[in-house]
Amino acid sequence: MSKINKIKVDDSKILIAIQSGLPLTITTYTLPHEMEDYIANVLRSFLTLLGQTQMIECLCYCVKELVNNAKKANTKRVYFKEKKLDINNIEEYNRGMVNFKQDTITDIKYYLELQRKQGYYIKTIFQSRNNKIKVEIRNKAELTVFEYKRIHDKITRAQQYDSIEEGLNQVLDNSEGAGLGLVMMMLILRRIGLTEENYQVLSENGETITRLILPFSKEVIQNINNLSKEFVDLIYGLPEFPENISQINRLISDPNSKMSDIAMRISSDVSLTGELLKLVNSAAYMRSQKCNSISTALKIVGLRGIRNLLFSIGSMENLMISSNNDNKKLWNHSYKVAFFAYNLARNFCTAPSDRNCIEDSYVCGLLHDMGKIIFANAHTDIKEKIKNLCLEKGISTSLFETLVAGVNHGEVGAKIAEKWNFPESISEVLRYHHEPSKAPDAMKKLTSLVNLADSMDHYIEGDINYEQIDQFVLKLFNITSEEQLQGITERLKKSFNNES
Questions:
Q1: 299 vs 129: CA distance, rounded Å
Q2: pLDDT, tens digit, for every residue of 347-396?
């Protein structure tokens, strides 16, 4: 208990999860009171950072009800095992439930310890994406058919009442309050404008999943969308992409160009040649011998690879406005993600059709946070304009920054890439790197690589845990355990540190 008492809410980690659209997962096996308090405090912080304080009271009640239901379901499973009763047999179920409550209350510590030993977890998950909040309670026990029916009977019963007061009186008069908690929860959700459609219960893969999907208030969504558009419009005030690099990229795209002409054109620009050779000789390419000429570089990385490196150089030239600590941190993260993405691609993209994935991985990793970098370096007068718009719309600047520079920064980065005429493969990876499952099919694997590389660096830094990494991505690359992920991240971290 003393250990749980020391748990404190880390607002910085909650903010990282919100900005990246990552799930916040809290796992417990016995749900002591201290853990209940911790879950409620995390939820309060999560909703406050999202500017959704009007939901706090309602969702805290709902989550408390749902986690305790999950705990009871898990206790029921170990109790039935102890009594050698089949929980899926209606007659044995009814027989077991006669003494279940009294027996478990009398010896609750024993049954909770059984839950821990047998791995009966309760997971509470909070996530914000696309102006919606998802709350999930998962427990390691699939519902029986008759349990599922009872839950839906209670939901149907809640629809019969016009108010919380009416529901409270009617349920208390019936079966000594049976189903009161769930009925009350549905009525409370209705009070904040939600319906039964926002509530889902399902069983799959050995779990029961209870899910609440809650949209932001319409006013907040409209204001955020308007402000986001204003900011995207301001992007068009950015400098044009460097003309010397644009000329070389046009030459590369010309099917009549000769390799020697391209090499000569690059070599004529001393500064550009130096930057390009620096990248080719960087840690990502793991060269055993130093590359000293553009002709050799063309042979090593190919035309597509050279083109991508030129995009990288041009972007850095335009985006490296200042070298303050925040910018250094952003770029250091970007370099690591580029290194990780390229080396992951070399290991996971082994089919001949994956060649473009390997060649594009470095530039996409390097530029994945371009929208965030632009926002961080927005000119003072732009920031002042945004601040005034926030005041006008009655929305906090911190919330705008959290959502636009955070989870929406992929769209901002994609808009910049499109303005600079980058290939579609780059702009689409930037757009979907926090939601790779939604990327176009042709870019899904590359987008997932960048997402994995990004998550790995946050995992190494302790910003996120294994359960927060996108399950779609882990499954795509056949990563099935945290031990396996740790092995990969340790090797990549060591290689990056050795070569940096």
A1: 43
A2: 898 888 888 888 888 889 888 988 887 777 766 666 677 777 777 766 66
Residue 74 dihedral angles phi and psi, to the nearest 5°: -65, -40
Q: Are the beta carbons of 443 and 428 closer than 8 angstroms? A: yes
Fill in the DSSP letter of residue 192: T
Say how many C-beta atoms besides its own lie within 10 A of residue 205's C-beta.
8
CA distances from 218 to 56, 116, 131, 175, 195 (A): 17, 42, 10, 40, 16
**Which secondary structure element, helix H or strand E, spans residue 439, and what is its range?**
none
Are 467 and 25 in contact by the 8 Å Cβ rule? The answer is yes
Using CA atoms, how far residue 264 sits from 195, 261, 295, 341, 360, in Å, is 67, 5, 8, 30, 24
Instruction: In whole angstroms, give the CA distance from residue 109 to residue 96.
Output: 19
Residue 55's identity, in one-letter code, is M
Q: At 342, which amino acid appears?
A: Y
- The secondary structure of residue 436, as a DSSP letter, is G
3-class state of residue 128 by DSSP: strand
DSSP state of 217: P
Take residue 263 and report the two structure tokens written for it: 């090499």
Q: Which bin fits 119, alpha (ψ -120 to 50), beta or left (φ > 0)?
A: left
The DSSP symbol for 16 reads H
Tokens of 146: 């008759």
Local structure of 120: helix, strand or coil = coil
* Entry pTM: 0.70
DSSP secondary structure of 266-292: HHT-HHHHHHHHHHHTSGGG--SS---
Q: Which of 1, 23, 205, 215 is nearest to 123 (CA)?
A: 23
Core vs surface per residue 401-429: b (16+ CB within 10 A) or e: bbbbbbbbbbebbbbbbbebebbebbbbb
284, amino acid identity:
A
CB 297 within 8 A of CB 332: no
For residue 115, the model assigns a pLDDT of: 93
Buried b (16+ CB within 10 A) or exposed e, 297-316: bbeebeebbbbbbbbbbbbb
pLDDT classification of 453: cutoffs 50, 70, 90: very high
433: CB partners within 8 A, 6+ apart: 364, 368, 410, 447, 450, 451, 454
Q: Which pair of structure tokens corresponds to residue 189?
A: 């959700």
| Residue 23: both structure tokens together | 């799930």
Instruction: Report the distance separating Cα 37 and Cα 60, nearest Å.
Output: 10
